[in-house]
Amino acid sequence: MEMDAQKKLTSLGGSLPVPSVQELAKNTLTAVPPRYLRPDLHLPFILNNINSTSCSTSSFVHVPVINFLRLVSGDFMDSELDKLHSACKHWGFFKLINHGVSSSLLEKVKVDRGT
User: Fold this and answer.
1) What is the rounded CA–CA span in Å between residue 91 and residue 94?
2) How far is CA 52 from CA 24, 45, 55, 56, in A?
3) What is the torsional sign of CA 46, 52, 54, 58?
4) Mean pLDDT of 21-49
5) If you compute the radius of gyration of the chain from its CA atoms, what whole number of angstroms results?
6) Better-scored residue on pLDDT, 55 or 68
7) From CA 99, how far away is CA 68, in angstroms rounded?
8) Contact at 8 Å (CB) between 81 and 72?
9) How far apart are CA 106 and CA 23, in angstroms?
10) What is the DSSP letter of 88?
11) Residue 66, number of CB atoms within 10 A of its CB
12) What H or E segment, with its residue span, contains residue 96?
């Protein structure tokens, strides 16, 4: 009986093949592919006030920002780690600032990639 249960657990199937983010980025997308939409989350992803006729910057939800210097600082590490955890859990990405990579190198990478 235990062997049957083990067999069922191991034969649940695999992941569906999906294109990587890099493959998606090569194409000009006009909409988010349906498989990446999460209507069950009910987050105010774009506008806080959907009935707003003007789009001021205060009405947009901002991408989480993680400060690398605070992340490695003893005084602020715990709070920045909490922000990093939340960004990864709820957003899946974040903007990293004060990382020490020169702006000229970042621009070179953008040019080399063609973005």
Assistant:
1) 7
2) 31, 14, 7, 9
3) negative
4) 69
5) 21
6) 68
7) 5
8) no
9) 21
10) I
11) 19
12) strand 95-97
Give CA–CA dist 95/106, Å, rounded: 14
Main-chain phi, psi angles of 27, to 5 degrees: -95, 155
Written as six digits, the tokens of 92 are 């899946």
| Tokens matching residue 18 | 């999906």
- How many residues comprise the chain? 115
Residues 6+ apart with CB under 8 A from 81: 71
Q: What distance in Å separates the CA atoms of residue 85 and residue 72, rounded to the nearest whole number? A: 15
- Residue 68 has a pLDDT of 95
Query: Using one digit for the tens of pLDDT, what is the confidence trace for 70-104?
Result: 999 889 999 999 999 999 998 888 999 999 999 99
Amino acid occupying residue 73? S
